[in-house]
């Protein structure tokens, strides 16, 4: 592919863009943002991700709404004085829309260990979307729920499950990143 070549350039490599949204540096976020801005005109393939300074939660929510209305997935909120961390940080927060709906359960799959050994617990629920497409819900369960649901898997068929998700996929119209909430009936 274009990005994985190490010896010679792919013929389409000139059409690639490099999008910069942060830089690995111990300086605070605002100083890193200034550094990134200075890269904007370095090369035509360098694109600097837009940033907005928000003073309060109301500003954040207005920015979030406008970005979502432009068709983007969400925003990243960063503390202006936060240093770059190479791990999850309380100074960086992802804002993405969450939706929830109910879907019919049509089956269940067993959880499998990383060594391929069945674990005698629920791996995922197989669900049916409104237009007949199937999808799996495999996150959001506690270990106890996984064991109980696996034991009662035959009685789950036909029941409704509440699922939260980011948005529906464009192709199959099924939830993207579905997370189990509860069995409805």
TrEMBL record:
GO terms for molecular function: ATP binding; DNA ligase (ATP) activity. Residues 116-183 form the DNA ligase OB-like domain. InterPro entries: DNA_ligase_ATP-dep_cent (IPR012310), DNA_ligase_ATP-dep_CS (IPR016059), DNA_ligase_OB (IPR029319), NA-bd_OB-fold (IPR012340), NAD_dep_DNA_ligaseB (IPR050326). Keywords: DNA damage, DNA repair, DNA replication, Ligase. It holds the Pfam family DNA_ligase_OB_2. PROSITE patterns: DNA_LIGASE_A2. Its cofactor is a divalent metal cation. GO terms for biological process: DNA recombination; DNA repair; DNA replication. Residues 30-96 form the ATP-dependent DNA ligase family profile domain. This is Putative ligase.
């Amino acid at each position: 592919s274009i990005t994985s070549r190490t010896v010679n350039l792919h013929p389409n490599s000139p059409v690639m863009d490099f999008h910069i949204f942060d830089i690995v540096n111990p300086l605070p976020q605002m100083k890193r943002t200034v550094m990134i801005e200075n890269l904007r005109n370095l090369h035509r393939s360098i694109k600097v991700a837009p940033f907005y300074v928000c003073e309060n939660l109301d500003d954040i929510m207005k920015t979030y709404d406008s970005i979502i209305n432009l068709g983007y997935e969400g925003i990243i909120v960063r503390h202006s004085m936060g240093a770059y961390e190479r791990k999850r940080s309380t100074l960086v927060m992802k804002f993405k829309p969450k939706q929830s709906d109910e879907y019919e359960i049509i089956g269940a799959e067993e959880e499998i260990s990383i060594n391929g050994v069945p674990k005698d617990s629920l791996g995922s629920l197989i669900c049916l979307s409104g237009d007949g497409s199937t999808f799996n819900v495999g996150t959001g369960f506690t270990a106890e729920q996984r064991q109980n649901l696996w034991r009662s898997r035959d009685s789950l068929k036909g029941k409704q499950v509440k699922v939260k998700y980011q948005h529906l996929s464009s192709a199959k119209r099924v939830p993207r990143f579905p997370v189990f909430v509860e069995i409805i009936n």
